[in-house]
TrEMBL record:
Gene Ontology MF terms in the entry: heme binding; lactoperoxidase activity; metal ion binding
Listed name of the protein: Peroxidase
Site positions for Transition state stabilizer: 65
Family: Belongs to the peroxidase family. Ascorbate peroxidase subfamily. Belongs to the peroxidase family. Classical plant (class III) peroxidase subfamily.
Cofactor: Ca(2+); heme b
Cofactor binding, note field: Binds 2 calcium ions per subunit. Binds 1 heme b (iron(II)-protoporphyrin IX) group per subunit.
Chief location bin: secreted
Length: 330
């Protein structure tokens, strides 16, 4: 047989397969991404989360929400961590995030340690994803493995938060739409809403339901009147104190249990966006199922967090590894 320079069919197939494999690797996150480059990365983050929660266990809720607000705005790229500058109002200074979003110092502390150990290796976006997982675990949720390799974005605009994050006044159709825009199903929307079993809300986020519901009715009739009366005491009308806040699941505000679904079933969901889940038969069914089967919900919650953590990620050569999570690299 004559020797030829032409590649054989199996060779072409093999090359195509290899190329496909490399492209897939580049577009996806990987478990154990830092095993070779910074083996202790996840332990360092966990240790900082543990220390942060010792000063205030409310930070668990803060870190879980931080990951959500990062991922829904420009993908999970750490853009929520960037500080505003003289010429830019960043995501974190949108009224949606400031003053309520918390846990930034924990991310800063983890990043500082990681820069000392493995300079320029671990992205801020991955730190947020690891920290949210640790917070879930420490609040009594189910632990899960976090695929990593996210890169950090270089853009953060407050205006992006209004169009990408759901408002607490949203009805079930709007919620479903906003989550679908991020590749999440309606069922995952109901599952992730269960995060409101931990943490707090400022009065300003729901006081419309107590005092200014609509032009003819001051109080939202879908809110349990006894609970409304209690909330009115905690959140007096016209209070000028912007830091007034109440627990979202008063029975167990620090525990990632299915108390949220019990509350919604009792018309004690704090936001319209919580209570609205009973207005659609599919979402109402899921609320019921999650309320009666907390162990299954914990598993579904962990899986939905992994999926949320992959929204719009930057990988490969995209973006950068920020040196300081609060500022893009110069
Ligand atoms: C379904 C649509 C959602 C809406 C409309 C919504 C809205 C809100 C609002 C208004 C607050 C209170 C902020 C404040 O005033 O202090 C809040 C708190 C919180 N949200 Fe959501 N949220 C949604 C989904 C989620 C998801 C998917 C997660 C995470 C997986 C999440 C996690 C949290 C946590 C943990 C808190 C408490 C934060 C703290 O205590 O610092 N939320 N949410
Ligand atoms: C206000 O809300 C009540 C209770 O849901 C409803 O019956 C009424 O039609 C609403 N009024 C307006 C003007 O939307």
């Amino acid at each position: 047989m004559r020797h030829t320079e032409m590649p054989t069919t199996p060779m072409i197939l093999g090359m195509a397969l290899l190329l496909g494999f490399l492209v897939t690797l580049e577009a996806q996150l990987q478990l154990g991404f830092y095993t070779q480059s910074c083996g202790f990365a996840e332990f360092i983050v966990k240790d900082e989360v543990r220390k942060g929660l010792m000063t205030d266990s409310g930070f668990a809720a803060g870190l879980i929400r931080l990951h959500f607000h990062d991922c829904f705005v420009r993908g999970c790229d750490g853009s929520v961590l960037i500080d505003s500058t003289a010429s830019n109002v960043a995501e974190k200074d949108s009224p949606v995030n400031n003053p309520s979003l918390r846990g930034f110092e924990i991310i800063d502390n983890a990043k500082a340690k990681l820069e000392l150990m493995c300079k320029g290796v671990v992205s801020c976006a991955d730190i947020v994803a690891f920290a949210a997982r640790d917070a879930v675990e420490m609040a009594g949720g189910l632990g899960y493995d976090v695929p990593a390799g996210r890169r950090d974005g270089r853009v953060s605009l407050a205006t992006d938060t209004f169009t990408n994050l759901p408002p607490p006044t949203a009805d079930v159709n709007l919620l479903t739409q906003i989550f679908a825009n991020k590749g999440l199903t309606q069922e995952e929307m109901v599952i992730l809403s269960g995060a409101h079993t931990v943490g707090q809300s400022h009065c300003t986020s729901f006081s419309n339901r107590l005092y200014t519901y609509n032009t003819t009715t001051s109080q939202d009739p879908t809110l349990d009147p006894n609970y409304a009366a209690q909330l009115k005491q905690q959140c007096p009308q016209g209070s000028t104190n912007p830091s007034l806040a109440v627990p979202m699941d008063p029975m167990s505000p620090f525990s990632l249990d299915s108390g949220y679904y019990m509350a919604v079933l009792a018309n004690r969901g704090l936001f319209s966006s919580d209570q609205t889940l009973l207005t659609n038969s599919d979402t109402a069914n899921q609320v019921n199922q999650n309320a009666v089967n907390p162990y299954l919900w914990r598993r579904k919650f962990a899986a939905a967090m992994v999926k949320m953590g992959q929204i719009g990620v930057l990988t490969g050569d995209a973006g950068e590894i920020r040196t300081n999570c609060r500022a893009i690299n110069q």
